[in-house]
Amino acid sequence: MNKIVLISGATAGIGEALAWKFAENNYNLILTGRRKDRLEKLKNDLIGKFQIEVLTLNFDIRELTEVENGVKKIPENWQAIDILINNAGLAVGVSPIHEGVYDDWERMIDTNIKGLLYLSRAIVPFMKARKKGHIINIGSIAGRQVYPNGNVYCGTKAAVHSITEGMRIDLVSHGIKVTQIAPGAVETEFSLVRLKGNAEAANAFYKGYKPLSAKDIADITFYTTTLPEHVCINDILVTPIAQANAYVYHKE
Ligand code: NDP
Ligand code: 8X3
Question: Can you say whether residue 206 is alpha, beta or left, with left for phi > 0 and alpha for psi between -120 and 50 degrees?
């Protein structure tokens, strides 16, 4: 029987790369995201290539009832979830705090913090019942160090950092591992979303150095799941070689 991984935000970027990585390692996948067409295409591509099963759940992670109803659709034989990867997230806008856009703030807080909590709250009981499981939260270097105009996004990722620690404390007696992966710059749709569709500016962010790829993060994340039962990687902070911290880049 294949193991089961649930990946939130699998329609693009790191989540999609995670889906491919776990699929090639014979996991059955539960994939979530808002863009149903992308979820279905990814499912078809994956089951066409690998001997695995894929279940797609189409919901907006900001909406508690959508998350709960989505999780209720997980059939009993899929509830033995071995790994939950809380990946869905985004940055929106680059305003200084005094010019912040309320809707941008709400989208980031509701997705990166509340969405992660809603999904974790719904899935942990399945792991607790089996006395095993692994939760992996995709944080960010932005949760360690704040940069100009990063204010609220950095705050949400600092929250992911603290929530990860809290989860590890609360779940230690239930045999559940909790890991945070905190990347620096990864070339995905992230910048396009943050810059509200300005493709030129988004591409410019990745120019002059080699950013991490989504596959790099998928490979590192997968590694944390390959260790013996008693070994739990707590935290990985990873940057491109050209990125010294959250705001110092060496660009040619
Ligand atoms: P992408 O924009 O490429 O992918 C984001 C994913 O999150 C998409 O699948 C999107 O799916 C999903 N998502 C966003 N909002 C929602 C929502 N409301 N409900 C459900 N799903 C949602 O970005 P990345 O792959 O780069 O980002 C993935 C994670 O990695 C995020 O948590 C991000 O903060 C983090 N990260 C990214 C870094 C980077 O430089 N790229 C660096 C450090 C961390 P859909 O739109 O279909 O709903
Ligand atoms: C995304 C990386 O440095 O743009 O979390 O905040 S950064």
Answer: alpha
pTM, two decimals, is 0.99
pLDDT in tens, 10-47: 999 999 999 999 999 999 999 999 999 999 999 999 99
Other CB atoms within a 10 A radius of the CB of residue 218 amount to 25
**What local confidence, expressed as pLDDT, does residue 34 receive?**
98
Burial of residue 153 (number of CB atoms within 10 Å: 0-12, 13-18, 19+):
buried
CATH classification of the domain holding 166 = 3.40.50.720
CA of 48 to the centre of ligand 2 (A): 34
Instruction: Catalytic residue, from 27, 153, 206, 209: name it.
Output: 153
Residue 80 resides in a domain? yes
Binding site membership of 195 for ligand 1 (Cβ less than 6 Å)? no
In angstroms, what is the span from residue 140 Cα to ligand 1's centroid?
A: 12
Question: Does residue 144 lie in a domain region?
Answer: yes
**Which numbered ligand comes closest to the C-alpha of 87?**
1
Phi, psi of 47 (to 5 degrees): -75, -20
